[in-house]
C-alpha cells in the first residue's frame, strides 16, 4: 500500500494473490489492508489536506503534468501489467494507458480554470463574492475492468481541485493500482496527497471511507448494487457522492442506416474489453428488412475473432475476470436459448487446450432476443450481442428507454431529423450517433437514472470535487 508517501505492508502483515485471468496463474501478492490501514490513510490524507488545499492551481498542475509525462514514458510497462492482470489485448491496454494519462493532462489544465464570480448586490455597501473550494478528503473506490484509467479519472480532478485522496482499487487488479501509484510517487506528490489501500475484502476499507467524518466525498465506479449500498451509507454523513454504475445500452439500427457499416461498428464496441464495459451495447435493435445483411456481417466478423492471451498477435478477445463472471454470461445465454433465441456464433465457454485454464467465453451473437429473456434487462458484462428484431420505428424510443439504467446508447441513421429525435428522446447520459467511441478526457462521462450520479472528465469533472462558498462583504 502507499500511505503518507511510503510503500508499506498491511497492519496485520496479511497479503493476497493477484491472478492472471488468462491462465489462472498467480502473478504476485499484495498487501491485504483492513480498517486500521484505511484509518491510517485517512489520517494522512486529512493532514495533507491542510497544506495541499492552500497550494496554487499552478503548483498542483505541475505535479499533474509530471505524472502525465512519467505515465506516457512508462506506457509499455503499465500496459504489460494490465494485460497480465486484467487480460485485455496489448493494443487495448496501450490505449487505456493513453486514456488514463489524458486525464492527468486535462485536469492539469482545468486546475487553472476554476473560476469564482462576483454578484451585484441590491445594497450599495455590499459585495458578493463566490469562491470555489476543494471539498476535502476523497474516498475513491475503483473497478477492475479499466483498472488504470478509472484511477486517474478520479484522482486527477480531485488533486487538481486541491483535495487529497484515498484509493481502494478492485481486488482483482491491485498490481495495476500499484503501477499507477508508482507514477504518482515518482511525480513527487507531497506525502498524504494520494494514498492507496489494497484489500481482498472491500468491506472494512469501504466502511471507513463511507463512515469516517473526515472523508467528505465518495467517488465510486462499479456495479449499481454496490453503488446503491455505498450511497445510502454515505447519506448518513451527508457526504458528496459521484457514482458511475451499471448500464444496459441500446444499439439502434434505423431503417435508413447501412446495415453493414452498423454491424462493423457494433463488433468494435461490443467486444471491446470482452464486453466488460458499462457502456457496452446490451440490446441491439435491428429492423426486420435489414436482419439478413446485418447478421451476415456480424457472423463474418465475430467468427474470425481470436481469443487468447493479450500478448499474442491478432488476439481481440481476452478472458473474463473470473469464474463468477463466466457463470453469469452462461446463465444469460442458456436462459435466452431456452426461451427461443438462436445462437449465430459462440454460445459456450472456450475449452480448447491452452485456454481452458483461463476464463474464456466465445464471442457470441444471439438472434431473436425478446423482452422475456434475462439478457434483455440484466447487464451482461461479457462478449454476447443480443439482437432484437423490430418492425415499426415509432416504438423504438419507448423500447430503448424501458430500462432502469441510463448510461450509454448508440444510434445508426443517415437521417438528420431522426438523429436529433433520438439524441433528444433517449434517456441516457452518453449518446453515440453513428459513433461507437463517444468518450474522451475532454467529454463528460456519466449516467442518468440508476446508472449514476455526477460526471467524470470534461469541465464537469472537477466540479465534483469543489464546494461553493459565498462571501458577503459590507464595506
Ligand atoms: P463488479 O461487480 O463489476 O466487480 P463491484 O461493484 O463489486 O463491481 O466492484 C467495484 C468496486 O467496488 C471494487 O473496488 C470493489 O472492491 C468495491 N466494492 C465491492 N463491494 C464493496 C463494499 N461492500 N464496500 C466498498 N467497496 C466495495
SSE blueprint and pairings:
Layout: E1 2-3, E2 6-7, E3 15-19, E4 26-31, H1 35-52, H2 57-73, H3 75-86, H4 90-110, E5 117-119, E6 126-134, E7 137-141, H5 149-161, E8 164-168, H6 174-187, E9 194-196, H7 202-211, E10 215-221, H8 224-236, E11 240-244, E12 249-253, H9 259-270, E13 281-287, H10 291-303, E14 306-307, E15 315-317, H11 323-338, E16 342-345, E17 364-367, E18 384-390, H12 396-401, E19 408-412, H13 416-425, E20 430-433, E21 452-453, H14 458-463, E22 466-474
Parallel strand pairs: 7-8, 7-10, 8-9, 10-11, 12-13, 12-19, 13-18, 14-15, 17-18, 19-20
Antiparallel strand pairs: 1-2, 3-4, 5-6, 6-22, 11-21, 16-17
Helix pairs in contact: 1-7, 2-4, 2-5, 2-6, 3-4, 3-6, 4-5, 9-10
List descriptors.
Ald_DH_N, oxidoreductase, alpha/beta, 475 residues, Aldehyde Dehydrogenase, Chain A, domain 1, binds adenosine-5'-diphosphate, 22 strands, 7-stranded mixed sheet, 14 helices, Succinate-semialdehyde dehydrogenase / glutarate-semialdehyde dehydrogenase, Ald_DH_C, Aldehyde_DH_Superfamily
Q: What would you note in describing this structure?
A:
- With 475 residues, the chain is an alpha/beta fold.
- The chain folds into two domains: 270 residues, Aldehyde Dehydrogenase, Chain A, domain 1, CATH 3.40.605; 185 residues, 3-Layer(aba) Sandwich (Aldehyde Dehydrogenase, Chain A, domain 2).
- It has 14 helices and 22 strands.
- The strands form six sheets. The chain has a seven-stranded mixed sheet, sandwiched between helices. Strands 9-8-7-10-11-21 form a six-stranded mixed sheet, sandwiched between helices.
- α8 links the parallel β10 and β11.
- α2 runs antiparallel to α5 and α2 packs across α6.
- The radius of gyration is 23 Å and the shape is globular.
- It starts with a strand and ends with a strand.
- The model has no long low-confidence stretch (mean pLDDT 97).
- The structure holds adenosine-5'-diphosphate.
- Adenosine-5'-diphosphate binds next to α7.
Amino acid at each position: 500500500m502507499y500511505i503518507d508517501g511510503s510503500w508499506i505492508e498491511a497492519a496485520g502483515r496479511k497479503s493476497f494473490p493477484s491472478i492472471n485471468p488468462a491462465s489462472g496463474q498467480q502473478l504476485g501478492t499484495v498487501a491485504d489492508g483492513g480498517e486500521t490501514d484505511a484509518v491510517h490513510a485517512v489520517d494522512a490524507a486529512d493532514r495533507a489536506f491542510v497544506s495541499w488545499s492552500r497550494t496554487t492551481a499552478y503548483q498542483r498542475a505541475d505535479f499533474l503534468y509530471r505524472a502525465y509525462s512519467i505515465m506516457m514514458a512508462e506506457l509499455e510497462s503499465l500496459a504489460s501489467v494490465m494485460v497480465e492482470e486484467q487480460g485485455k489485448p496489448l493494443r487495448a491496454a496501450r490505449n487505456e494507458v493513453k486514456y488514463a494519462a489524458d486525464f492527468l493532462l486535462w485536469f492539469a489544465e482545468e486546475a487553472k480554470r476554476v473560476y469564482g464570480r462576483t454578484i451585484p448586490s441590491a445594497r450599495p455597501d455590499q459585495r458578493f463574492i463566490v469562491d470555489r473550494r476543494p471539498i476535502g478528503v476523497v474516498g475513491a473506490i475503483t473497478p477492475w475492468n479499466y483498472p488504470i484509467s478509472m484511477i486517474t479519472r478520479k484522482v486527477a480532478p480531485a488533486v487538481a481541485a486541491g483535495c487529497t485522496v484515498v484509493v481502494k482499487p478492485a481486488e482483482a487488479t491491485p498490481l495495476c493500482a500499484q503501477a499507477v501509484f508508482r507514477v504518482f510517487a515518482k511525480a513527487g506528490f507531497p506525502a498524504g496527497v494520494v494514498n492507496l489501500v489494497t484489500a481482498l475484502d472491500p468491506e472494512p476499507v469501504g466502511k471507513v471511507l463511507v463512515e469516517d467524518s473526515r472523508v467528505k466525498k465518495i467517488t465510486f465506479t462499479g456495479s449499481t448494487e454496490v453503488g446503491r449500498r455505498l450511497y445510502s451509507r454515505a447519506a448518513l454523513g451527508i457526504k458528496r457522492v459521484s457514482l458511475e454504475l451499471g448500464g444496459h445500452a441500446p444499439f439502434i439500427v434505423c431503417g435508413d442506416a447501412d446495415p453493414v457499416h452498423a454491424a462493423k461498428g457494433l463488433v468494435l464496441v461490443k467486444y471491446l474489453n470482452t464486453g466488460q464495459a458499462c457502456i457496452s451495447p446490451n440490446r441491439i435493435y435491428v429492423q426486420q428488412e435489414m436482419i439478413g445483411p446485418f447478421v451476415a456481417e456480424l457472423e463474418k466478423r465475430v467468427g474470425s475473432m481470436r481469443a487468447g492471451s493479450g500478448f499474442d498477435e491478432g488476439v481481440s478477445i481476452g478472458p473474463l475476470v473470473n469464474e463468477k463472471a463466466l457463470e453469469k454470461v452462461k446463465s444469460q445465454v442458456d436462459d435466452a436459448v431456452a426461451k427461443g433465441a438462436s445462437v449465430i456464433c459462440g454460445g459456450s465457454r472456450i475449452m480448447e487446450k491452452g485456454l481452458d485454464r483461463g476464463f474464456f467465453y466465445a464471442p457470441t451473437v444471439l438472434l431473436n432476443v425478446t423482452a422475456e429473456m434475462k439478457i434483455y434487462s440484466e447487464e451482461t458484462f461479457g462478449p454476447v450481442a443480443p439482437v432484437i428484431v423490430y418492425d415499426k420505428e415509432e416504438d423504438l424510443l419507448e423500447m430503448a428507454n424501458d430500462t432502469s439504467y441510463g448510461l450509454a446508447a448508440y444510434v445508426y441513421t443517415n437521417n438528420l431529423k431522426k438523429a436529433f429525435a433520438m439524441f433528444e428522446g433517449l434517456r441516457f447520459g452518453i449518446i453515440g450517433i453513428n459513433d461507437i467511441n463517444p468518450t474522451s478526457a475532454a467529454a463528460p462521462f456519466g449516467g442518468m437514472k440508476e446508472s449514476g450520479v455526477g460526471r467524470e472528465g470534461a469541465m464537469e469533472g472537477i466540479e465534483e470535487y469543489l464546494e461553493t462558498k459565498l462571501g458577503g462583504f459590507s464595506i
